[in-house]
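Please check this chain.
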Amino acid sequence: MANPPRPRITGITVNLLMPDGTTRVHTIDPKICDALVWSDRAVEVFGKFYDKGGPAEGKQMTREDFLHHFPHGGPIIGDQPHLPITPAVVNQIWNHPKEDGTAPAYLSKSLMNPVNG
């Protein structure tokens, strides 16, 4: 039996209300992002993707790639050349303040490496 046709998401717009009362709009391209989480519970579930036995167990990011995506993440990666991505690291990223002192509003997963997260 063939799968029924599925609508295709062509764009995602995220409207943010910042702690200081200002607003920001972020546009996410679904051609390069296949997961988006924005709550503590969703981040916890997302982190399990990288747990032992999960589909992306053993995923690592190079220092350069990690700091490209998380320029404020120096304290997370330290002086390591690679960062193993684990549920604990996902939690650290979620709770680590950016340059403006705020924690991330959402985390997204890139399609850059569809085989290993």
The radius of gyration is 16 Å. The CA atoms of residues 34 and 114 lie 9 Å apart. The longest helix spans residues 40-48.
